[in-house]
Structures are given as C-alpha cells and as structure tokens.
Design goal:
Strand content: 25-35%
CATH topology: Archaeosine Trna-guanine Transglycosylase, Chain: A, domain 4
Radius of gyration: 12 Å
Number of domains: 1
Number of strands: 6
Order of helices and strands: EHEEEEHE
CATH class: Mainly Beta
Oligomer: single chain
Strand order of the largest sheet: 2-6-5-4-1-3
Shape: globular
Length: 92
Amino acid sequence: MKFLPKIWVFDATVEALCHGARLAVPGISKLTDDVKKDSVVAVMTLKDELVGLATALMDSEKISESSSGLAAKMNRIVLPAGTYPKGWVSKK
C-alpha cells in the first residue's frame, strides 16, 4: 500500500468500519497530505494494519480543517470484524 494515500483511524473506529460504517472526520487520527476527493485511499489502523480501501469524500486539506462530516466511503474491508473491540454502545 506504499503507493496509495493513507488515512489512519482510531482503534474505536475500526470495528464500526468493519461493520459497514462510513468514515467520519472525528474517527481519523492522521492522514497523508496527498488525499484527493474521489480517489482511492488505504484506511489503516494505528498499528499500520490495513482496514480496507475507501473512496475519499474530501481532500486532505478539508479533512484537516474539519471537525465533522464524512471523509470516506469504504469500498472493501480486509480486516475481519471482531479484530478490534466495538467502540459504540447499542441502545436497549
């Protein structure tokens, strides 16, 4: 994945992505400065594990300036669900 722009996500975000969530700006820890809107990006854990591939919905500059909004739509997940703890609470 050396040739793709990268977005690193917090551990609490990983499991939500594995269950089909879109990547929102608050779930992003860091990113490379070459992320372009509508381009394919590698979504990584903080341990540099590939979560999957996504289509960027914003440029890296806009992601860095934003505090909310959707940053990427996941296209392919390669990390198995259950690898990271669930970071959300279900209402019962």
